[in-house]
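pasting for ref
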Amino acid sequence: MADYRIVEKVSTPSSRDAPAGDDGVAGVPAPVADSFVHSRLLDSVAAFTHHRDIAALDHSLALSLAELTSARSVVLAKRAIDGAYVESIVRCVPDAQGTYQLRVDDPDRVDPALRLLHRCMHRLEVQMEWAQGIHRLVVPILRDGRAIGALQVDSDMPPAASRPLADGFARIYANYTGLLHESERDKLTGLYNRRSLERQLQRLLHQREQALHQAAVAGPEPHEQPGMPAAGPARVWLAILDIDHFKRINDNYGHIYGDEVILLLAQQMRACFRRSDVLFRFGGEEFVILFAATEQATVHTVLERFRQRIAGHVFPQVGSVTVSIGYAGVGCHDYPANVLDRADKALYFAKQHGRNGTYGYESLSASGLLGREMAAGSIDLF
């Protein structure tokens, strides 16, 4: 089985096949060569800081560094917000034709080639080694005195030549992602904010479209029987959860304890849901989850398990807290407001039927429990 999930073909480094003279760039005079290198460097920085989406930024950074160093491999690893684990790995390598390709590796897969990378993030120090005729350089990506990730460059270029580029890109990346983090994350919980919803939703839908296309090209799996439907790529789902009687918590215990409940709930969400699931604080006591699942029954089971987990958790000072959850499937051409409205109708149903429950829009609609006259719930769509 392949060890990656997403593959992108990208540009071929123009200098890879060009014969370099003593002055470094295909025999041209040194001043012209320096100007050329500086121009490529500025173009690369401008290219990857153009992005506002973190995933696109990660890919552009790995590609830019690979091209500038003519690397055999560039790996960008990033830690989760709390630093507890590596949440993503992007790798850029040239194929047999010298065309760089980007792929997203499984961060849970054990890869001996990333031993130095993990050591670098742990020690916050640059790591170097010479192995099998390749120079390996790993530099930490630091923000506020802690490692948020690391860059690993495998190339024919000695570390003395590649390190200034890797160090510089790591610093630029740390500063730029810090700005993006402030603009798209909730300050209290660190979850995505509501402004990020449309972009994250479109990203998940795009991944599903790619998976559908790849499945169509590949054809049925060998074990599938003729005439039997294929499982197909997972559908995207959106869930809204709301803390029950949150106003009472603020009124009885004060806003400090109310904020603590919100913060602890966000921590429980991170612990319960997968790394690939996208978590939002949508405002106040409302949260949104975007995730992929093939069957609605699976969606209901996962959300119900989380609801029960919160109901059984003891919050300091406050004690018992419950949540109501509504969810809906996302169509390939859905607008975010439409999906939110459907999920919110299911949430409103939960609120009107005792709270502390989990309901899906599709099931409620099929059962005729959602009348046309039913008003939307409490969430603000615009």
